[in-house]
Design brief:
Blueprint: E1 3-7, E2 17-23, E3 30-31, E4 36-41, E5 46-50, E6 55-60, E7 67-69, E8 73-79
Antiparallel strand pairs: 1-8, 2-4, 2-7, 3-6, 4-5, 6-8
């Protein structure tokens, strides 16, 4: 099975890090491509993070309430 990293998106030109507000899925849940799996926020924007692939949410790397740098892995999806 191939693993795909879900990264903290850059929501604005000056965004350097974002806050994980909520996980909409838990480890072991099936996810569809483009399905919302988390909610993150920057200083100005709140947005959903969507799954880049269909599969299973194998690992949540950063928990709710954590600040994460843009481009850093926040979760791992195992493709089916």
């Amino acid at each position: 099975m191939k693993e795909v990293n879900v990264i903290m998106p850059k929501l604005g030109m000056t965004m350097k890090e974002g806050l994980i507000v909520e996980w909409k899925k838990k480890e072991g849940d099936k996810v569809e491509k483009d399905e919302a799996i988390a909610v993150v926020e920057s200083e100005k924007i709140t947005a959903e993070v969507k799954s880049p692939e269909a599969g299973v949410l194998k690992k949540i790397v950063h928990k709710e309430g954590e600040e994460v740098n843009v481009g850093e892995t926040i979760a791992i999806i195992e493709r089916e």
